[in-house]
Amino acid sequence: xxxxxxxxxxxxxxxxxxxxxxxxxxxxxxxxxxxxxxxxxxxxxxxxxxxxxxxxxxxxxxxxxxxxxxxxxxxxxxxxxxxxxxxxxxxxxxxxxxxxxxxxxxxxxxxxxxxxxxxxxxxxxxxxxxxxxxxxxxxxxxxxxxxxxxxxxxxxxxxxxxxxxxxxxxxxxxxxxxxxxxxxxxxxxxxxxxxxxxxxxxxxxxxxxxx
Length: 211
Prior knowledge:
It contains six helices and nine strands. It has helices at residues 35-42, 45-48, 59-72, 123-138, 154-162, 191-210; strands at residues 3-5, 19-21, 25-28, 81-88, 94-104, 107-114, 144-150, 173-177, 180-190. It is globular.
């Protein structure tokens, strides 16, 4: 079950990103002190192959990256941008980032990056589920969640499939990254589709619990 916690002491600044909590994860706003964690995955060449930015050169690069994210945070309707560091409850490490960006009135895009060593675990899916659940719960006008990944990124392609996101009528586009053409897949799920998937998931978990 997703737990959403708002900080009552923070009134106006968007630093009041809600803290999300799931069974194995805590999602909360990144702080500059988290730079060593961020560098561990953002400095990886394997991870850099899956994103449009270059691998971080050092911890100072990660500090700058976090600062840029914090400057972009916004809860202004029409230009919402929220970003969470994904922390494991088991070992306390931050191993990824998930963001929500509003491009249109009724749709948002979820973005993410995770440590290469976590790609084979179920934790990335748990993190994305938490953020999509939050979006559906918190933004009543939201009708569609979108995500994008490189066609060659099999980890992300499988992740989208497991989240019941599909390509639908969204186009595959080609973008240039570090001088090379890369195919970018677009995926989406509607609010109604997501609620149906989550209801089915809850029913399955309830049957498992009763056994």
